[in-house]
Amino acid sequence: MDSIKYQVGSWLKNREQNAVNSDIDQRLTLLEEKVFKKLKGLRATDAQRFLLFHYMKGLEPIIQRSDISQNQKDLLVSLIINIDQDNAKKFLAELGKKVKPKLETETNYNFLVQQFASLGLSDLEAKAEIILTKIRAEKEK
Questions:
Q1: pTM, whole model, 2 decimals?
Q2: C-alpha to C-alpha distance for 15 and 19, rounded to whole angstroms
Q3: Which domain of life is it from (predicted)?
């Protein structure tokens, strides 16, 4: 008899705990939906993160260091801006070139113009807008 009472009591306790857990789970799901919807709008590609960091003069101190190898520079950039190391290597190599097909895309520069405008960085917005205009003109040829 005690065994049945224990099982019923245990079942009721578990049922109450399950209801609490379900409520917590629903609230957590709702919060995640709200947070992740906002984060989706703020996501940037590796190239866009690299370009933002470049325009904010974050790359200059790394590039100018002569006491570390190029591989170390690639790794350092990839760690700082959270991009793939191979992409960091490709993007750093492109900086010194006249033509930058991996970086100078319409999508990347649309993103930069929008971000600089929203941050009120009109000087950087103007620079990005000039390159965007050049990209569009090349596209029309």
A1: 0.69
A2: 6
A3: Bacteria
